[in-house]
Recover the amino acids of this structure.
């Protein structure tokens, strides 16, 4: 049985990101232009990787669903 007392990993990830936004905003003023550009480039790389992982998860879910459907047809 799943309880809401323990946050899910995705919930924890959201909490961490949301809690860091104000800090990142404040630190942004302390960074040079080159450091800001580097940070934005790193953010773009992370977002691209996240999208690639999401696509892979969706492919795996689709393959799992297809396997389940084929198995159900045999029964």
């Amino acid at each position: 049985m799943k309880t809401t007392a323990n946050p899910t990993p995705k919930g924890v990830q959201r909490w961490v990101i949301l809690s860091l936004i104000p800090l990142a905003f404040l630190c942004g003023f302390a960074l040079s232009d080159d450091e800001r550009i580097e940070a934005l480039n790193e953010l773009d790389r992370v977002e691209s990787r996240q999208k690639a992982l999401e696509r892979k998860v969706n492919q795996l879910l689709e393959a799992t669903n297809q396997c389940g459907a084929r198995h159900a047809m045999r029964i």
Helices lie at 9-28, 33-74. Residues 33-74 form the longest helix (42 residues). DSSP finds two helices and no strands in the chain. Residues 9-74 form one domain.
